Amino acid sequence: MQSDLDQILAALAAEFASGQMDDWVTAQVAALANPADLVYRSVSEGLAGIVYRRLKKTGGLEALGTQLAYRLTQTHYHAVQNELRLRAELVDLVAQLNKSRVPVVCLQGLALPDDLYAQSGLRPMYDIDMWVLPNNFKSFSKLLQACGYSSSRRYPHTFKKGNTVVDVHTHLLWADRIAARQHLLAVDQARLYHEAETFRVGNQTVRRLNRYDQVLYLWLHALKHNLERLVWLLDIRLLLDRFDVGDWWQLIERAGLLGQSRALAQLLFLLDELWALNLPDVAQRFQGATPISGLEKWLLRRRKHQGALPQWSTLVLFPAGMQHGKGRLIWETFFPHPEIIRQGFPDAVNLPAWRLYARRVMQIATMPLKKGT
């Protein structure tokens, strides 16, 4: 059974997407026995800005009480400041990139269309995600260093300057960490890289994934993180809401080309479960022709009914459509290369590989004892 809080958050996200307020949501928020749960959960789900704007518009902010209203307000305005700072940093960085002609693709939050969230701070943003092909990483890292960013030995692909973090990917689906993830794509990642589109950020031009690749990438990113944040699903819904029938045909065709038809079927199943979307006929026919397993459906419904997935869900959902390399992907997820394991154990910099793997075995053995697994 879906909890009241999960229902409210899903309904608030649906309200935002449709632009129409629902009296049922207002009544449900007012009836909450512990409104603190709504505030803290909205923060963890990435919906604090949307909840803040909704409550302020309907006069419900004061009903939270002084302390909770202050917490929610501060969270929202911190998100506003963070987004404006990151956008300014991105403009400066792109200006240097365009001078040096180092080709990059911007990913995730900052790559979303500007008008997807009409006001700053409605969607939290924490860092700048950039994708470069492996042979361009050295040039890009030098450019970042020239711009005042530095990386650590432990996290060589993460660059910091003050409070700004640039996370650099050399593989779109994170095969730079788990090599078997390269098999998630049925084509070379360079094809997606070269078929990216341009968009404006400030007075500069930068590239992002084309709209079809962006939908698929955002879903796989959400799966990689066990669907932990509802805002990631809202991002995708807002993008799909702009699709016409021709776009849907191209999305389905693109998913097939990339080997991600099963992932698209998972996505549409969950979006329909959460929001009972009125999908076009072409999408419904695709769903009928691309069935997903009962286990996949059970796990995806867990996101709706319990707001979280078991930690092992990624091992089922993420590689579901892979034609080969699935076993290798699961093995490397448990036992990646030693340098990746070291990142999870800050005190293990100098440990030999066998001791690292021993600690990893112990870590895996205790996972079922943790809440939510």
Provide the domain count: 2
Cα(first) to Cα(last) distance is 19 Å
The description of the largest β-sheet is:
7 strands, mixed
The tally of helices reads 17
Instruction: Find the structural class using helix and strand composition.
Output: alpha/beta
Question: What general form does the structure show?
Answer: globular
Order of helices and strands: HHHHHEEHEEEHEEHHHHHHHHHH
**Low-confidence stretches at least 5 residues in length (pLDDT < 50)?**
none
Portion of residues in helices? 55-70%
C-alpha Rg, in Å? 21 Å
Q: What's the architecture of the largest domain in CATH terms?
A: 2-Layer Sandwich
Provide the residue-averaged pLDDT.
Answer: 87
What is the CATH level 1 assignment of the largest domain?
Answer: Alpha Beta
Strand order of the largest sheet: 3-4-5-2-1-7-6
Q: How many individual β-strands?
A: 7
Q: Which topology of the largest domain does CATH recognise? A: Beta Polymerase, domain 2
Give the amount of beta strand, in percent. Answer: 5-15%
Commentary on this structure:
- This protein has 17 helices and seven strands.
- It has a seven-stranded mixed β-sheet.
- The chain has two domains: 4-334, 2-Layer Sandwich (Beta Polymerase, domain 2), CATH 3.30.460; 335-373, no CATH class.
- The mean pLDDT is 87.
- α1 (4-18) packs parallel to α9, α8 (211-224) packs antiparallel against α9 (230-240) and α11 (261-275) runs parallel beside α13 (294-306).
- The longest helix is centred in the N-terminal third of the chain and has 35 residues, at 66-100.
- The chain is globular and about 55 Å long.
- Helix content is 55%, strand content 8%.
- It has 373 residues and is an alpha/beta fold.
